[in-house]
């Protein structure tokens, strides 16, 4: 227990922005995290949907290590071949043509919001209740959770948040001042809520007809998480802009905005930028992550394993009195309870299984795509055991 005292001491000089657990990270490999007491955890949350290839993936480590010895940063005055190569991996596997590299998900969304306004000359950004898009001013204003905005007002103008999966409200709101609709295919932070096919089809049709842009926030759902590189592929739509981050560098901080060719002139020299965006270390991580995902066919594996995992969760848990719903897409799963999920999440963590919440009563799982099927199925049994003791 002496190490826990160290943790408290260490945090005294940090802003307390995070609700931290009583666990101090020591190291991580593949799907296992070890704390400073030597206790090991099976990681069913992948650093909040980030280490899709597992922790310390050897190819990604090797690629970043090689780049470490060849220069970290020169600035975006230089052409970086690494940026072009990483961009090509994204554009050749998506409907996008051009990439802007940022350092996080919020920054990728910020770029998308700015580009949509600049290109259309319009103000209105439509997003949805319970969505999460980040904590910078634009991405925070788009986020459909009042708790995220509390105390930080005034929000920038022009942001409208509509009920999710509600076509009639959407029809009323889209007009000739709509710059973009920003949508998650599965609301992650908002409770693992997949969008309805009919709703997504309507969003695409209506926003494009109005002359606005369709922006898919694939920060949590992308990079193979749902069984395709990006989740919108499964809805058969073609966004004008896709935003990515989280799994993109398998844990190396990086974000990307991927857009259509027709948007090129609106993001000309001097219009937008960032000192660190697209630096060679981040690009080495992106290239190694994407190449590994594609060459080792992890996305296809995620689709198959995800289906099995979700079916098993459904079969084993749905009939329990405390379980209200089981839902998800690929390796993104949510179990909604009739009561707070926090005590269950803690109980599982104490037993060595890491899951997270999404809203007050959902247990969210975002395991590395590399997690073995037997480990996934053992996890289902652990959750079943924890939930079976609750009478509701
Ligand atoms: C859908 C979605 N968009 C945006 C973000 C913000 O990303 P970041 O925390 O990297 O700024 C997140 C983070 O959870 C997210 O899930």
UniProtKB/TrEMBL annotation:
This is Acetylornithine aminotransferase. May also have succinyldiaminopimelate aminotransferase activity, thus carrying out the corresponding step in lysine biosynthesis. Pathway: Amino-acid biosynthesis; L-arginine biosynthesis; N(2)-acetyl-L-ornithine from L-glutamate: step 4/4. Pyridoxal 5'-phosphate binds at residues 105-106, 132, 217-220, 275. It catalyses: N(2)-acetyl-L-ornithine + 2-oxoglutarate = N-acetyl-L-glutamate 5-semialdehyde + L-glutamate. One of its GO terms (biological process) is L-arginine biosynthetic process. Pfam families: Aminotran_3. Homodimer. GO terms for cellular component: cytoplasm. It comes from Salibacterium qingdaonense.
